[in-house]
Amino acid sequence: MNALLDNVDRLALWVLWTSLSIVGVMAAIVIAGRLALLAHDRRVRRLRRAWDPAIERALQGDTKARETLARSPSRDRLELARFLIFPLVDDRRPDRIAATRDIIRVMSLIPLADRWLRSHRWWRRIPALQSFGLLQMAERAPQIVAALDDGNADVRSAALDALADLKDPATLKAIVVRLHDTSLQRGRRAAALTAFGPQCEGFLIDLARVDPEHRLNYAKALSVCGTARSRPSLCDWTSDTRAPARAAAFEALARIGLDDRAAGLAIAALDSDDVQERAMAAAALSGWTAVGDEAAQLARHLGDAWPVAVRAAHTLRTMGSAGRAALESCAARADQAGELARQMLWEVEAGV
Amino acid sequence: MTLTIAVAVFTTIVTAYFVLWNAWQFVMGGTASRFVWRYQWRRNIRSRALVARLASPPLVSIVVPARNESLTIVESIRALLALEYEAREIIVVNDGSSDDTLAVLQRTFRLIAAPLATGQPLKTAEVRGIYRSIDEPDLVVIDKVSAGSKADASNAGINVASGTLFLNMDADTMLEPDALSRGILPFLEDPTTVAAGGYVAIANGARVEGARVVDAGMPRSWLARFQIVEYMRSFLLFRLACASHNAVTIVSGAFGLFRRDAVIEVGGFSHDAIGEDFDLTLRLQRHFRAARRPARIAFVPVPVCWTQAPEDLPSLKAQRTRWRRGLLQTLWRFRGVVGNPRYGVVGMIVLPSTLFFEGVGPLLETAGYLVATVAFFVGILNWSHYKVLLATSILLGAATTLLAIFLSDLTARRYLRGRDLALLCLAAVLENFGYRQLNAWWGCVGTVQALTGKGGWGPMKRRAFTPIDTQ
C-alpha cells in the first residue's frame, strides 16, 4: 500500500513538474512570438524609412535609384520586394507594373521566385505565383497554368489569381477549359473571367458548341463576360431540355440585354413550369420598352411565386410608362401583387 | 470508512475528467494552431482582394435586431453604412422597444413609412410598420411587436432581406471595417458554404471612435479581463478546431453570415430557443448532413467584430445562466444527433464532447469543490494530492490560455503593449481563483433553472459609445 502511495506521490510530482514545464514553454513561445513581431515591425519601419524614397524614385524611372536597390543587402531584398509588389494588388496601372517588374529583375529576385515556384513547400509556391501574376510576367504563364493542376488547393487558387492578374490571352483557354473543375474556387474562377471580360466570349461559345453537356456553366460564365455576340447562342440555349440551363441562359441574357427574338423567348418562358426559369425570364425583360403587351404579361406574374413576382416587379419599374401603368393597375389590390406594385411605385416616386 | 471510499471514488472520477479535459484542450489547441498557420498563408493580401475583383459581389443584408438600443443605435448604423463592402443593405428591426429607439432612428435618418412587399417565408409577430430612409437608400427599418425573442426579430429581418446572404448581428456589436469582405470569402470560395462565423472580440477597454474600435486595450475591470481570455480560448481554440473539420456547432449571434435560402429551408431562427444561434447552427448541420447534401460552416479566425462584455456580477450571472439554459436546451433538442454516426464529426465528436465537458463539467467541478471542503473538515482530504491536482489544473489551464494568446497575436495582433500582455497572462492565472468557481456555480444555477423552467433574460447594463472610450 505504501509502495502504491509512493508511486502516486512520485506521479503527482512528475505531473506537476510537467505542467510547470508546459506553462514555461508556452510562456516562452508567447514572449518569443511577441518579440519577433515587434522586431519585425521595427525592421519594416526602419526599411521603409531607409528605402521608400529610393523605391519612389526607381518607380519614376530614376536609374541611380534602381542601381541602389540592386545593391541593397540581400537580407533586406525580400522585404523590399514586398514593398514593391503589394501595392500592385490595388494599383494595376501598366506603367507601374512594368516599372516594378524591371526593378524586381535588377534586384535579381526572379531566380528566387523561380526556385520558390519549384519548391515542394506549398507556402513557397503561393507567393511565387502571386508575384508572377501581379508583375504580369507573361513568360512565366506556362508555369502558372501548370500550377492550376497543383496538388494543393491553395496553390491552385493562387494560380487562378495569378492568371487573372496576368491577363495574358494565351492563358485564356486554360481557364475556360477548367470551367467545370470544381476543385478550383468558384469566386476565383468568376474573378478570372471578369478580368478577361469579353475576350473569353469566343472560347466559351465555341466550347459550348462541342460540349452541350456543360451548357449551364457556359451560360453562367457568359453572364459574367458575355456581350451581344453571345445573344444568339443564349437564345438557342433557352430551349435546352434542362430547366437550370434555360434559367442560366435567361440570367445571362438579363445581363447582356435583349433583342426582339430574345424578348419573345423571355415572354414565352414566363409560362414555364420552372420557377427559376420564369424568374430569370422576368429579370431578362428588365429595361425592355418595346410596344407590346409585355408589361401586362409581367403584371400577371406579380402574384406568382415570390422569386418570379419580385423580379417581375423590378422589371416593370424599368419599363417606362407601360410598366408604370401596369403597376398602377395592380396597386389597389390587397394581395402580394398589390404590395409589390405599391412598393415599386413608391420607389419610383422616392427615386430610390 | 464509507465516506472515505466515496471520496476516493469521486476523486478518481474528477481526476479522470481532469485528464480527459486537458487532453481534449491540447488536441484542440494543436488542431487550431494548424488551422491558423494555414490561414496565415492562405489569406494574404492578394487573396483578400478577391471581392474587389468581382464584377458583382453578392448582396449582403445586415439584419440588426434592436430592442431599447436608443443609446447606441445611431452610431452603430453609421458604422455599418461606412463599411468597406458596398453591396449591402441594412435592415434594423425595432423589436417592440419601450424606449425611443424608433423615434431616434426616424429623426436621425429621416425615415418615412414605405410599402415593402415581403415573401414572408418565416412567421413572425405582427409588423407594425416599415420605414425607409430618405437620406440612406440602403437603410430599412421594421417596427414590430416584440415576441420576446431576438429570433423573432431576426426572422422579420430575413423576410425583408433581398440579399443572397444575410448578416445576423447584435445592435451593440461593432464591426471591423473589413468584416464583410473577410466574411464573404468562404462563400465565394466554396459554393457549399451555408454559414460563416467570426472571432468576436471584447470591446471593453478599447478606444472607440464612431462605433469603431480604433485601439484595443485591456479594461480596468478584472471581470472583463477574464472574459477576454475566455473569449480567446473559446473562439481561437474550440471553434477553430471545429472549423478545421467542418464541424462548427455555433455561429455567434454577434456575427453570423448565412445563406438566406439555407436558413429559410431550415425554418429560420427558432422562436423558443434560448441560444438561438447555437440552435440554428446545429439545425443547419443536422439538416444538410441528414440529407447527405454538402454544406460547410466556415469560421474566420480574425476579429470581425467587437462586443461589450458585462462588467458587473448580476449582468454576468444573468448572461452565464442564460447561456447555460441555452446549452442544455439545445443539447436536449439535438439529443438524437449526439453519438449518431449519421452526423459525422458533429454527432460523434463535437456534440458528445460538448455534452461531457460543457454539460457535465460545471456540475462535476462544483461537486468537486464541495466534496473537497467536506473531506477537509472531516479530516479525510489527502491534502498533498489535492494541492497537486489544483496546481496542475491551474497550470494546464494557464498553458491553454497562453496558446490562445499566441494564436490571437498571430491572427489579430491586438493587445500588443507589454502591459496588456502581462495583464492577459495574469488574468490567465487569476481566473482560477474565484472567476472559474463562479462560472461553475452559475452553471449549476442555470441547470436548476433549466430543469425548473425558471429564469429570464436578466439584467444587462448597456453603455453608450462615447466619442473616445478610454474607460
Q: List the helices and strands of chain B in order.
A: HHEHEHEEEHEEHHEEEHEHHEHHHHH
Spatial extent as radius of gyration of chain B: 23 Å
Shape of chain A: extended
Secondary structure class of chain A reads mainly alpha
Structural class determined from secondary elements of chain B = alpha/beta
Helical amount of chain A? over 70%
Determine the mean pLDDT of chain B: 90
Largest sheet of chain A: none
> What amount of the residues of chain A lies in strands?
under 5%
Q: Strand order of the main beta sheet of chain B, please?
A: 3-4-5-2-1-6-11-8-12-7
Order of helices and strands of chain A: HHHHHHHHHHHHHHHHHHHH
Major pleated sheet of chain B: 10 strands, mixed
> Helix amount of chain B, in percent?
40-55%
Described by the principal axes of the CA atoms, the overall outline of chain B is globular
Poorly predicted segments of chain B: 467-471
Radius of gyration of chain A: 30 Å
* Total DSSP helices of chain A: 20
How would you state the average pLDDT of chain A, rounded? 91
**How many extended strands of chain B?**
12
Structural features, described:
- The complex is a heterodimer of chains A (352) and B (471).
- Chain A is mainly α and 352 residues long.
- Chain A has a domain at 286-352.
- Helices cover 73% and strands 0% of the residues of chain A.
- Chain A is built from 20 helices and no strands.
- Chain A has helices at 2-59, 63-70, 74-85, 94-106, 110-118, 122-134, 141-147, 153-166, 172-176, 186-196, 201-210, 215-225, 231-237, 243-256, 260-269, 275-284, 294-299, 306-317, 320-330, 336-350.
- In chain A, helix 11 (201-210) runs antiparallel to helix 12 (215-225) and helix 16 packs parallel to helix 18 (306-317).
- The longest helix of chain A is centred in the first third of the chain and has 58 residues, at 2-59.
- The radius of gyration of chain A is 30 Å and the shape is extended.
- The model of chain A has no long low-confidence stretch (mean pLDDT 91).
- Chain B has 15 helices and twelve strands.
- Chain B has helices at residues 2-42, 50-53, 73-81, 101-109, 150-160, 179-183, 185-189, 222-243, 260-265, 276-290, 313-333, 344-378, 383-411, 418-430, 435-452, and strands at residues 60-66, 88-95, 111-113, 127-133, 139-144, 165-169, 174-175, 193-202, 207-209, 212-215, 255-259, 296-307.
- Helix content of chain B is 52%, strand content 15%.
- In chain B, strands 3-4-5-2-1-6-11-8-12-7 form a ten-stranded mixed β-sheet. In chain B, strands 9-10 form a two-stranded antiparallel sheet.
- The model of chain B is unreliable at 467-471 (pLDDT under 50).
- In chain B, a hairpin with a 5-residue loop joins strand 4 (127-133) and strand 5 (139-144).
- Chain B has 471 residues and is an alpha/beta fold.
- The longest helix of chain B is centred in the first third of the chain and has 41 residues, at 2-42.
